[in-house]
Design a protein that fits this description.
single chain, alpha/beta, Oxidized Rhodanese, domain 1, four-stranded parallel beta sheet, globular
Length: about 120
Amino acid sequence: SAGRPTRHRYLRLLSRGEARLFDVRSPEEVAEGRIASSVNIPVADVEEALKLDPETFKMKYGVDKPRLDDDHVVFHCQMGRRGGRATEIAIALGYAKARNFSGGYKEWSEKEGKP
């Protein structure tokens, strides 16, 4: 489907700094390998994180909080389920264009090799 983000499209957007990629896996999973430039917010923390004010978000996660109108707010997990849940949460909070990279880290690492 046209709405399913592809790995190549993300690589392009990430390299230009146009996509915000949030890894919603556990810190333990992230420690074993991650997509460069992704920010780890475990799925259980996503709702609370997206409700933080921008200053607190930046202090906690080290990056600017995404804006509600950002075009490319992307979530991913290992294989898609938790990323989908995080995307639903973000959309419910007003991030209308939030997307799930449904292939997850599994697909990314198989295609790219672990960073």
